[in-house]
Amino acid sequence: MPRQFCSCGDCGVCLSRRYLQAWTAGAVDAFYASLTDEQMATLSARRAAVGRKVDAKRAGTPKRSASLARSSVRQRERNPEKYKARTALNNAIRDGRAFKEPCQVCGAEKVEAHHPDYSKPLEVLWFCRPHHKAHHGHLRPDYPL
Questions:
Q1: Burial of 25 (0-12, 13-18, 19+ CB in 10 A)
Q2: Could you identify which of 68, 72, 79, 124 might form a hypothetical disulfide with 113, taking C-beta atoms 3.0 to 4.6 angstroms apart as the criterion?
Q3: Phi and psi at residue 100, to the nearest 5°
């Protein structure tokens, strides 16, 4: 039995279907021009949700798992000092000898450790993801802080 779609025109499924029709017809620009802000937000949210499902499914494939394992081994071989520092810090956190602190910029609780010096593995700066990326200069200009 074919999948049934509603014909409201505003839900994520209908908007995705209308996009595919516009893409097939070569009228994507006109399709986007016809969308309201609410419809655009709905379409973006649906794409994000579908993308997360696809990424999760792809990440579990044997080929991807083997690729990640090889990449991890190469990374450890190229940066042994970095690997040792990360391992030492994670072990210290696990054993209760070190504790995560809030982000040093904004005070967020979900943080990442930054090692200014890998020879001192327990001396770290704590940043949330956006501020850690900004600290390294890898932040896109449009990334919300």
A1: exposed
A2: 124
A3: -70, 140
